[in-house]
Amino acid sequence: MSTTIALDQPYVLTAEQIEFYHKNRYIKLKNVLDSTTLEHFNQVISKKVDELNQQTVPLAERSVYDKAFLQLFNLWKEDSAIKELVFSKRIAKIASDLMQVEGVRLYHDQALFKEAGGGITPWHADQHYWPLETDKTITAWIPLQETGLEMGPLEFSAGSHGIMEGRELSIGADSEMLIEKRLKVTDFKHVIEPFEVGEISFHSGWVYHRAGANTTDRTRKVMTVIYMDKEMKLKEPSNDGQKNDWETWCPGAKIGQTINTPLNPVLY
Q1: Where does the signal sequence lie (predicted)?
Q2: Could you tell me the CATH number of the domain that includes residue 234?
Q3: Which pick of 135, 183, 192, 230 has the fewest CB atoms within 10 Å?
Q4: What pLDDT was estimated at residue 255?
């Protein structure tokens, strides 16, 4: 099956949608993918996750972090069909238009499969882990099925990218407790909504987000693609996670220089 035409066809954003993203640093967009395309990628990504998954610890015995999801990275390197989705100009252009930059590079992709009975994904901000010089980063969160509230869809604290507190916290029980406590004394809207088939969300690196538990008997399957401004420069890592990300996702990149490595191609 070829999905090239659908994945390269532009998705036109309105000025209102770009303004909404700029204010809230997240947005949900309907009908980015059609049901046939989504089911195709559901099958190919699920197959690859099954092949590569090495988690053997029973769900009940895992940490809060490991109960949240199975995660596998840079599947575009593992499967040419998955690469079609990760390299989609349609989705990359949305990322570029929302951030109002001239183009985007790949930071990395990530499959996030929340198993049946899987726990919460604690409050966190992604960019805690990223050794990137600016906030021109964005993640496309692509559910591979209709995702009701009972499956644990992504939740957002709209506009919370301006909060400095909690940025030093790695994802886990502490980040869930401390960030939730901080958000409760703000006016930021807590957005919890289901995702329709083909609906995708985009969120910036510093906006706080979480997901509920998956209380169904089915796996919540999500593919994510993380984009950065194509001119993004590497910064001096400020924690171990950022040092690890530099070595893993931007190998060979130099501090203060544009992150132009074979793992970080320009996608739009």
Answers
A1: none
A2: 2.60.120.620
A3: 192
A4: 98
pLDDT tens-digit readout, 57-86? 888 888 877 777 799 999 999 999 999 999
Letter string b/e over residues 29-40, b meaning 16 or more CB atoms within 10 A of that residue's CB = beebbeeebbeb
**Whole-number Å distance between alpha carbons of 244 and 130:** 9
Gap between the Cα atoms of 124 and 168, Å rounded: 10
CA distance 19 to 16: 5
In the sheet with 70-73, reading across from the earlier edge strand, the strands are 26-29, 200-204, 137-143, 220-229, 104-114, 70-73
pTM for this prediction: 0.94
The span from the CA of 62 to the CA of 225, in Å, is 26
**Which two structure tokens, joined as six digits, stand for 220?**
């919540």
Per-residue tokens: 177 = 């407790």
Of 78, 132, 136, 149, nearest in space to 104 by CA: 136
Query: Does residue 229 belong to any structural domain of this protein?
Result: yes
For tokens 């183009």, the residue is 103
How many domains is the chain built from? 1
Q: What is the dihedral of CA 251, 130, 202, 196, to 10 degrees?
A: 80
Per-residue model confidence as pLDDT tens digits over 105-152: 999 999 999 999 999 999 999 999 999 999 999 999 999 999 999 999
Determine, yes or no, domain membership for 198. yes
Exposed/middle/buried for residue 166 (C-beta within 10 Å: 0-12, 13-18, 19+):
buried
Structural domain of residue 24, as residue ranges? 4-54+65-249
Asked, for residue 266, whether it belongs to a domain, the answer is: no
Distance CA 122, CA 209 (A): 8
